[in-house]
Give the backbone structure.
Amino acid sequence: MKRGYENRIELLQGTLDLLILQTLQWGAAHGYGISQAIRVNSGAVLQVDTGSLYPALHRLERKKWIKAEWTVSENNQKVKTYQLTAAGKKQLAAERSNWERLTAAMAGILNPIEGAEGA
Amino acid sequence: MNIWRQRKDVELDAEIRSHLDEAIRDRIARGETPDEARANALREFGNVGLVKEVTREMWGWASLERLVQDLRFGLRMLRKNPGFSLIAILTLALGIGANTAIFSVVYAVVLRPLPFGDSERLVAIWTHTPQVERLPMAAANHRDLKAQNTVFEDIAILRGAANYNLTGDGEPEWLQASGIPANLFPLLRVQPALGRGFTAEENQPGQDRVVILSHALWQRRYGGDASIVGKTIRLENIAHTVIGGMGPEFQYPTREVQIWTPLTINPASFQTRTGYAHLAVARHKPGVTVEQAQSEVSAIAARLAQQYPVNRDVRFTVTPLRRDLANVAQKPLTRRWDRPASGRNICRNSRSNTGGGQH
């Protein structure tokens, strides 16, 4: 069971970090808010597992890309919210460009005919 | 489990709880009943314990890193404030040193058992008069106490200290000696490490030319040679036969004693009933308390006071031997730190030291 979680973290790690950083770009959010934002923005295609989300948040916090703060939510509840740090913003830019290069390369491989026709 | 980690755990619990609360609220807002919402939110969240566990793994060595940072910070501050550091270190050093010193004294005086068998039953008996509250014992009073009491197995008297010049077998030496009776060793339940103790005959004047060596003297001057037994040494230029040697733990009545000689008593002192010159040590019978022993010696003292005019104001006091030896051990501290030795102090010191100072 635990092994299953670990494998999923391994698989998701790069993309999940990027998704979290991207989500926080628009402002501070708590864990549940982040998972909902990813779900909604992906048209419910991406469902972030809590067993991946919280380790990722705590790892990013330790790397000082995000910082946590206890605040009171609109429902008047104490929640731990995360926001991007300056280092986090740089990291987001770097990961975005990595991702774009990766997707472009993937697209080039997956759609060679389209690419050849276009050329 | 350190404090930092405990706090992180509490925070993680709160974080997960708030996640579930938000999820339940959302589901209720979408039309689920509270029970459904709760069940579904929990199912969607998954195994709470497992999520906590994998999240905790992300903290890794963070707490250790913080400890290293704290240590670095501490060292930096110590270097930046050498004056403060010095005072802090000195304070610690003095504190530790003082505690060690006090413990050593307390251990020697209070905690370490007396090096005698069944030592809890040993008491010292002192003479008490209106003029002086702690006088040693007169031989006649000892004889009467011994004959009339029912609480003690035995009572022994000894001379605290005498001095002898040891000559003839090397450098002349001035020795502290103690005159002891044949019944002292059985009473204290000690055995010589070498040879034998004194016999009652050797306590008779004229038959007392025998000695027992302290462990220190035996080792230092005679190289620990067991064949010293039976040889003669010269005290005050009179030949004495060595009949025994003690183990290192036997240092009675004081640490300074280097040689024991047989106690002899001038018969005249039984007539005068004075000569408060002897330390008295007794072993009370099993089951007898110090209070019971005290009340019996008080009763005997009252009888003797009626019988003999010289005993009119004489009383006896019983104290556990441990406390008695503690008084002896306190002496150097008192002498050094209390005040310059006043007449009274000298008097008290010499009494506990020599058992009367009358010789």
